[in-house]
């Protein structure tokens, strides 16, 4: 936003915010944002196995999947670039 781009953020929480699937979307665009939801994301960050299983379908084929290797052990087949990092261990 400080660079003059249009920015939109939304979130969705399960019945229990702690321990259930949550999702947050951020759109950054040079153009006007015409639809307030991500259709296919360029980058997907997954911090749990449930998120990886459920949300991988929303990632572009040429996208990048960042996953918490502490919590995500397997992912469905994908052509996306995969970057694993131990986010939970680093946070501890």
Give structural notes:
The radius of gyration is 14 Å and the shape is globular. 13% of the residues lie in helices and 40% in strands. The mean pLDDT is 89. It is built from 2 helices and 5 strands. The chain has helices spanning 49-55, 87-91, and strands at 6-13, 22-29, 41-46, 59-68, 81-85. It folds into 2 domains: 1-39, no CATH class; 40-92, no CATH class.
Classify the helix fraction into a percent range: 10-25%
Number of helical segments with 4 or more residues: 2
Note the gap between the termini.
Answer: 31 Å
* Estimated share of beta-strand residues: 35-45%
What is the molecular shape?
Answer: globular
- How many structural domains in the coordinates? 2
Radius of gyration: 14 Å
Largest sheet: 3 strands, parallel
Instruction: Classify the secondary structure makeup into a structural class.
Output: mainly beta
Q: Give the rounded overall mean pLDDT.
A: 89
**Spatial order of the strands in the main sheet?**
3-4-5
Uncertain spans: none
Order of helices and strands: EEEHEEH
Number of strands: 5
Key features of this structure:
two-stranded antiparallel sheet, mainly beta, 13% helix, 92 residues, 2 domains
Draw up the topology in text.
Blueprint: E1 6-13, E2 22-29, E3 41-46, H1 49-55, E4 59-68, E5 81-85, H2 87-91
Summary?
It contains 2 helices and 5 strands.
């Amino acid at each position: 936003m400080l660079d003059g781009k249009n920015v939109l953020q939304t979130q969705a929480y399960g019945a229990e915010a702690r321990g259930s699937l949550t999702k947050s979307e951020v759109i950054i665009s040079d153009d006007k944002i015409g639809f307030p939801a991500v259709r296919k994301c360029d980058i997907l960050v997954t911090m749990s196995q449930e998120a990886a299983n459920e949300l991988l379908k929303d990632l572009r084929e040429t996208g990048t999947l960042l996953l918490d290797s502490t919590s995500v052990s397997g992912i469905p087949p994908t052509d996306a670039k995969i970057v694993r990092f131990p986010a939970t261990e680093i946070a501890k």
